[in-house]
Design brief:
Layout (H helix, E strand, L loop, with lengths): L13 E6 L1 E7 L3 E7 L2 E4 L2 E7 L3 H9 L1 E6 L5 H9 L5 H4 L4 E3 L6 E3 L4 E13 L2 E13 L18 E6 L3 E5 L20
Antiparallel strand pairs: 1-11, 2-3, 2-6, 4-5, 5-10, 6-9, 7-8, 9-10, 11-12
């Protein structure tokens, strides 16, 4: 497939496929707000997100030390771009995104997103103009259509929007309806993936 003939790429950035999320937070000017980012990962109860240090979202998350992470599907592309293009606006209102306030955090959980996480900040690392926010997940909410009768996540139904590209051009990519199970590709292996 790919990989036989690799050449060095001249770019200042390379996004190799990150899910787009809407980060919700408390805001002094508009009470609650949301910003689009593609920089996040979770391991167990730890979650890390990254925002430009000069963004309003970074300023308010540093102040209130809590945030929500909301996962949109491809039916919310306009909302993703409104929350990603209009710094310092009242973006939840501009994108007409209804929300519910969290149980453990004073943050907006976006109703139309299929998954929302309530998170509190544990540590902040500033580096090269970016604010890396390491938090703890306090609550996970998932649309019940994505859960089995036993309450487990139906991974093959999740439809995240992904962000891919380089400094020349960035695009969205959408998940196709195909999954494989962890461990399908090795025999007798023991996984340490958490
Ligand atoms: C698809 C997409 C992905 C983005 N990813 C990031 C990101 O990873 N980190 C970041 O700081 N900004 C990212 N942005 C840009 C911010 O959303 C944008 O700067 C926003 O206007 C900041 O708003 P605020 O200053 O009100 O917080 C992204 C925007 C889009 C549309």
């Amino acid at each position: 497939m790919f990989g036989e003939n690799k050449v060095e790429i001249n770019t200042t950035k390379l996004y190799y496929g990150f899910p787009v999320i809407l980060v919700g937070y408390k805001d002094d000017k508009f009470k609650y707000n949301a910003t689009t980012t593609s920089s996040s990962y979770t391991l167990g109860n730890t979650i890390t997100i990254c925002l430009r240090s000069d963004s309003c979202s970074a300023k308010y998350i540093k102040k209130y030390r809590e945030f929500s992470v909301n996962l949109p599907c491809d039916n919310l592309m306009t909302e993703i771009e409104i929350c990603g293009f209009f710094s310092n606006h009242n973006k939840l209102q501009q994108a007409d995104l209804p929300y519910t306030i969290g149980k453990y955090t004073d943050t907006p959980l976006i109703d139309e997103c299929f998954l929302s996480l309530e998170c509190v900040v544990n540590k902040i690392v500033e580096d090269s103009g970016y604010t890396h926010i390491i938090g703890e997940i306090k609550r996970r909410l998932v649309d019940n259509k994505l859960l089995s009768e036993d309450g487990t996540l139906l991974g093959d139904k999740v439809r995240t929007v992904h962000f891919v590209g380089d400094s020349d051009k960035r695009v969205y990519r959408f998940l196709k309806e195909e999954t494989a199970s962890l461990g399908d590709f090795v025999e007798d292996g023991t996984s340490s993936c958490s």
